[in-house]
């Protein structure tokens, strides 16, 4: 699954200026989406998904201090695109 659009990652970095350890944790976790878009602790976000064509998933990145990532996996092309990265409101 190609990790195609990750511009939301850099937008978050510029917007929130996270500490280096948090940036590294999130960047590393996002990089893993290239090989395993279903990686833990991500879960489907059914309200934004368009099955059977694509699925939106979200995850609070481990070791990030509550940084949440939303991304879309397109089942037709196998592309993975980040939608949003930021501090969770949970």
Tell me what the structure shows.
The protein has one domain (about 5-85): YaeB-like fold. Helix content is about 25%, strand content about 30%. The termini are far apart. The mean pLDDT is about 90. With about 90 residues, the chain is an alpha+beta fold. The longest helix has 13 residues, at about 20-30. Strands 1-5-4-3-2 form a 5-stranded mixed beta sheet. β4 (about 65-75) and β5 (about 80-85) form a beta hairpin. The chain contains 2 helices and 5 strands; from the N terminus they run βααββββ.
Order of helices and strands: EHHEEEE
Number of strands: 5
Mean pLDDT: 92
Poorly predicted segments: none
Main sheet strand line-up? 1-5-4-3-2
Summarize the structure.
The chain is of the alpha+beta class and 90 residues long. The protein has two helices and five strands. A five-stranded mixed β-sheet has the order 1-5-4-3-2.
Spell out the key features of this protein.
5 strands; YaeB-like fold; 90 residues; five-stranded mixed β-sheet; single chain; alpha+beta
Describe the SSE topology.
Layout lengths: L2 E3 L1 H10 L3 H13 L10 E2 L9 E7 L6 E8 L5 E8 L3
Parallel strand pairs: 1-5
Antiparallel strand pairs: 2-3, 3-4, 4-5
């Amino acid at each position: 699954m190609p990790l195609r659009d990750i511009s939301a990652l850099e937008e978050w970095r510029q917007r929130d200026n996270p500490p280096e350890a948090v940036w590294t944790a999130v960047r590393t976790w996002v990089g893993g989406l290239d090989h395993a878009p279903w990686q833990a602790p991500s879960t489907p976000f059914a309200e934004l998904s368009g099955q059977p064509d694509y699925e939106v998933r979200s995850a609070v990145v481990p070791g990030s201090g509550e940084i949440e990532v939303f991304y879309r996996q397109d089942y037709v092309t196998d592309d993975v695109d980040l939608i949003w990265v930021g501090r969770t409101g949970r």
